[in-house]
Amino acid sequence: MSPLEQLRAASPARPEDRLDSWKAIAAYLGRGVRTVQRWERDEGLPVHRLAHEKRGSVYASRREVDGWWESRRQSLSSGASTHDASTETADPATGRQLQRVTWKAAATFWPALSSDGRLLAYVSDGGRDDVPPQIWLQQIGGSAACITSGVCERSHLAFSADDTRLVFTASDTTGSSVYSMPTLGGEPRLLKRAALGGRPSPDGKWLAYISLHEPGGIRIASMASAVERTIGRDLLDVSFVVWSPDSTHVLVQAHVDPTAEPDYWIVPIHDETHAAANTGIMQRLRQRGHFNITLPASWANDSVIFSVITTEGVRIARQALSPETFQPTGDTELLTHGGELDVFPTANGERVAFVRTHADQNLWWIAIDPTSGMPSGPLRRLTRGPGFIAQLSATRDGRTLCYFLARRTGAGPVLRDMETDSEVAFAPADDHGFPALSPSGRWLASGGREAGPRAMRPIYIGSVADGETRKLADDCGGRPRQWLDERLLVIERFGSRLNSIALLDTTNGDQRELLVSAEQSISNARVSPDGQWIAFDATSRGASGASALSSGLTLGPGGRPSVFVARMRTDEQIPDADWILVDRSASHPCWSADGSLLYYLPTVPSLEFRNVVRARRFDAPSGSPLGDSFTALTLSEMIVPAAMAGTAPIATKDRLVFVLGDFRGDVWML
Asked: CB–CB of 182/136 below 8 Å?
């Protein structure tokens, strides 16, 4: 009996033939809503829409779904005899053969290839909306098996040198640690506590990892003894580590100074007389108008394989290295074309596996009851089309919404009239991101980036009326977050694993620290509507790596943030002792229009993708949270891509506005 037949046998049959919603279709197929939506788009699942209703009012015939399922099952069975249940196609630009190796249409991350290229491991939710992601294992061309269980976030997968064990990072509310387990499944064994990104060397002698207790560098531990040491001590904000094929060097993404842009560095593990060498790969990319994503790269033969942001989407790229100097030789080559988001590359010899996702990231909103502040009614879409949307702000009256929009046709701030649903681009210059609209809507602040080895972050102040823009300073050290009034701007500043919040005077460029901590990284600050309180999330030292740049993605070192509030001060720094805890394992706070509710996004089970909005009532005079926190909204069809910078929701008097997306995809190989 097929899985679908077993599901039906266990469920009472409905007398009618019609399935009247995405949820009903998903339940009938035993999958999640986002999976069947992906199947409709990519696999031809027969779903119909009511002509007189808005998009989202759908239905399907059980008989048509049965026929589609049977044909799909037969095609997969048929394909197994010739292509091992995979699909092969040619990249339209390079002619390289592409092979699809998973068919889950799921939230998929961190693929890893075995040394012989026959086994694939990856993290996935299996296409289900109601289960936490687990580690899956499959033979290339074969079926997949889930080999873990429980609510625990897993990342940074790697095979041991002999392919008998999997090494991975596990993160929960207590932090992140490196484990190993038998490749075919079994009990995990702790390797390193308060660590992440563990990688066994190709010769099986060493384990490289990032210690969350160390201020910088990479830890190298012997697999046969207790010998352990730190290399590359000057490197800060190390986001990953990978080995050279001959096990003599490691490649990391890092910088030597918080004011310097991160790049790929190569560090010898034995010769301490030779310092880490900067490859300059990312600097070369920035000069070409491309940007790197803070995700692990791979080192195969004489090349570095990584993801790169281009004007046509996120691609897999290859940069050849000189075998003598490890410096780049020739231009960077794009290996993939046609996908919207090609990420998590892992290479082995001549084979490269990666996750290909057709991201649908757009603005959505849901109505808010003006009395209770609770969301009600259906989610409604504000924008359409592939691309990148983030960094929401609004005027005090909620009539104008501002956000950053990046499409293939261009990128920059956009102003949207929430009453007429009309929008206009505000683009004073190229590569302006992180827009923040002043309370009256008169001014728009935006952040820029300048190509160069130093991390220069100018801030621009533009007049919405005439578009005239002035640069406030060549380097403001951070990016705009929110205007306090028509003069003072709250900005997020960057440091080594420790972000802080400052106030910037837009008339003269003066700054003063607002929220700073020696042990916690602070982000996502939002001032209450009356200007008396500031909400933010803070993560313990070592738990938040280098922040995403203007349009980047960051999956930094582990740990869970907590949401706090504090009474606003404009004349002095707010001490840690005055922080009031709202909730643990949560981030991205957002005030209701009247300041009586604080919405936020819990981080369990997933730190990168969220589908639940929780809230807590707030007493403005005392600053005390009232009662217990409660679930205000559960998103079933779309998710908040919290791993991307600037995706905190925003509330107006009658709406809660989100950046939501469908980031499900599959593993491909070239």
From this structure: no
